[in-house]
Amino acid sequence: MRYSILVPVLLAAAASVAAQSSPAGEWPAYGRDRGGERFSPLDRINRGNVSRLAPAWEYSTGEAAVKMIQSVSFEATPLMAGGVLYLSTPLGKVIALEPETGRERWVTDLKVNPISFGDFTSRGVSLWADASAKAGASCALRVIVATIDARLTALDARDGRRCAGFGQGGTVDLRRALRNAPFEMEEYEVTSPPAIIGGLIIVGSAVADNNRTEAASGEVRGFDARTGGLRWTWDPVPQDSTDPGWHTWVGANAHHTGAANAWSIIAADSARGLVFVPTGSASPDYFGGERKGQNLYANSVVALRAATGRVVWSFQTVHHDLWDYDNAAPPALTTITRNGRQIPVVLQTGKTGMLYVLDRETGVPVYPVEERPVPASTVPDEEAWPTQPFSTAIAPLSPHHMSVGDVWGPTPADQAACRDKLKVLRNEGIFTPPSLEGTLAVPSNIGGAHWGGIAVDPSRQLAVIPVNRIAAEVQLIPREEHRRRMHEPGYHMEGSQYTDMRGTPYVMRRSILLGPSGAPCSPPPFGALVAVDLATGARRWEVPLGTFAPNGAAGLGSPNLGGPIVTAGGLVFIAATLDQRIRAFDVETGKELWSAALPAGGKATPMTYLGGDGRQYLVIAAGGDGGRFGKSDRVVAFALR
User: Fold this and answer.
1) Furthest-apart CA atoms within the chain: distance in Å
2) Environment class of residue 370 by beta-carbon count within 10 Å: exposed (0-12), middle (13-18) or buried (19+)?
3) What is the DSSP string of 418-443?
4) 78: which residues sit within 8 A by CB, 6+ positions away?
5) Are 449 and 353 contacting, i.e. CB atoms less than 8 angstroms apart?
6) Which pLDDT does position 243 carry in this prediction?
7) Would you call the peptide bond into 386 cis, given omega within 30 degrees of 0 as the criterion?
8) What are the phi and psi torsion angles at 15 (to 5°)?
9) Number of H helices, E strands in the chain
10) Hey, is 255 helix, strand or coil?
11) CA-CA distance, 191 to 208, in Å (whole number)?
């Protein structure tokens, strides 16, 4: 497209983004709307014709050929506004594409150094329109990107050039002025696109939260979208003794704790001037002896006043987390009708597999939540919180218990080995604390529900959630014992992850509970897609999601990472599975209607839009992760044949 034609198109897009509304055919934010419903009103692809979906174009970012010291994961959800697709890559490329062909418009390489980041990915960009910009002005529409190495950059949507008046040469260093500075670059990163509201960029962070007690701090910050100037900072570990959460952190070092960060997507409600922040575990994940107490505002969904960063309300999903049960899923804002009354709500699900429906203005649960007693810790100097919040009207989306009798395996040898593993683990159901002998963690640290999050069909009042149903084992090992045995044959368990947890007496070991063949010990389905009726709290349907291997038996399901979307065509689209396919399900019944092979796993959330040619497109980043999901750098688009 010629530059003279592109300018008015982008200015029209700027006006639409500024108004926080978008044409039906666009996808201008990660969740399509900034509240994260992930619902498209398009219906040109529908239940009657979805079987005719076929590849329309592919685009390669070029990063699959880059030699890396670790695996990277291409998980971006592209945005579409003003007739242009925008996306980002793990290594710092920001790319604009023609939506009908995948042809490259421009590429800006922000040059991320390929060092060893914990979760090496970028899940996309954000868009901000400067309503005060003159027609034709540079940076009237901005692409806002936070690279994994914690640089916040503003680019002109027309050509990808840096916006000179933003920060220093177009960039703000997010590592500066943190309460706890990162010990090393890899400890602090950004993987999710920021929220945009009221001329502010609201950005969280991802923190390596199991390495030390005083990990990098997880402040959420608001920056001026025009200048990059810092407007406010909110710390999820309270630093003000007048804050209601202050007294929930107990111990001499408790307020020096790090993490409790928001590494997922932050939802925005422009009408109310609120942002909804999903926070994670305080550091370190699996031992809380240095941070006793309930630990507000870690593991919470927190409503902040967008203009000031002040807390309006909070709801904690896990007290004194010892299981790495981050709120990895983005909050989803929608409106439900219950008992004849319309209620604006926040939907929050998490690794526990519970779904909470909260009044958006107060944080009060719309469906009952009760505090139930949970097992006590047997680890010296640990004090597990005595109760946890259970959603009572909405059944858990994934199991909370696994007994020896539940053990599964494809062979008798697998089953016997899994039973032997389970017999020696502490196992009292969900929230059984980590122990010195080893504990069964169900759900595991990857969920339950995970960062793939929720898609909402507002007209049907359905929430659709992908979940994992595999268990893990977790053990705390006294540090001196670990040092003494670390070179002992057989001590290092294959497939186990060890973290040092500096500042505590323990090293943590965890692994997915697997049999000798590599299959899960937990019963199938290993992954599922669940639909919940938001008007009643009842489960509408549930189906296995994917297969455990490309030629796996039907009904086993697959461990999955990635999100769903819903369309007015009556469809749920999701990839996410190890078998490297994308699928369409009937939103009313859960019946699988279509699937297609991808060049690697679609460990991402898809999106859909209307092209200038009148065709509806479905797009997914099929990047795998260099491991079980495969390796690729492809963006794949589908359309009707």
Assistant:
1) 72
2) exposed
3) HHHHHHTSB--STTPPPBSS-EEESS
4) 27, 85, 86, 87, 97, 124, 607, 619, 621, 635
5) yes
6) 98
7) no
8) -65, -40
9) 3, 42
10) helix
11) 12
The contacts of residue 8 (CB under 8 Å, 6+ apart) are none
Pair of tokens at residue 431:
């929230």
Position 501, amino acid: M
Look up tokens 């685009």; give the residue.
59
Residue 61 CB contacts under 8 Å (≥ 6 apart), including other chains: 74, 89, 93, 95, 633, 634, 635
Quote the tokens at residue 302: 């927190």
Taking the C-alpha atoms of residue 40 and residue 18, their distance in angstroms, rounded to an integer, is 19
pLDDT for 69: 65
What's the one-letter identity of residue 224?
D
Token pair for 358: 């909260």
Beta-carbon contacts of residue 26 (< 8 Å; ≥ 6 apart): 16, 80, 81, 82, 609, 610
- 206-207 vs 188-189, strand pairing mode: antiparallel
Structural tokens at position 65: 């050929």
CB atoms inside a 10 Å sphere around CB 389: 18
Res 551: pLDDT: 60
Burial status of residue 284 (CB atoms within 10 A of its CB: 0-12, 13-18, 19 or more):
buried
Lowest-confidence region among 48-52, 77-81, 180-184, 598-602: 180-184
Write down the pLDDT at residue 66: 87
3-state SS string for 396-416: CCCCCCCCHHHCCCCCHHHHH
For residue 439, which amino acid is it? Answer: T
Map 487-553 to HEC letters.
Answer: CCCCCCCCCCEEECCECCCEEEEEEECECCCCCECCCCCCEEEEEEECCCCCEEEEEECCCCCCCCC
Which residue is associated with the tokens 């526990």? 352
CA within 13 Å, CB half, 560: 36
359 flagged as catalytic: no
User: Of 324, 414, 457, 579, which residue is the catalytic one?
Assistant: 324
Residue 242, judged by CB atoms within 10 A of its CB (0-12, 13-18, 19+), counts as: exposed
Q: Percentages helix, strand, coil for the chain, rounded to the nearest 5?
A: 10, 35, 55
What value does the mean pLDDT of the chain take? 94
Rounded-to-integer distance, Cα 531 and Cα 394, Å: 11
Count of CB atoms situated within 10 Å of the CB of 131: 12
**Which DSSP state fits 264?**
S
Question: Mapping DSSP to helix (H, G, I), strand (E, B) and coil, where does residue 569 land?
Answer: coil
447, 472 contact by CB (below 8 A): no
Nearest CA-CA partner of 514 in 411, 421, 426, 628: 421
CA Rg, the chain, in Å? 23
Helix (H, G, I), strand (E, B), or coil: what is residue 356? strand
pLDDT in tens, 340-354: 899 999 999 999 999
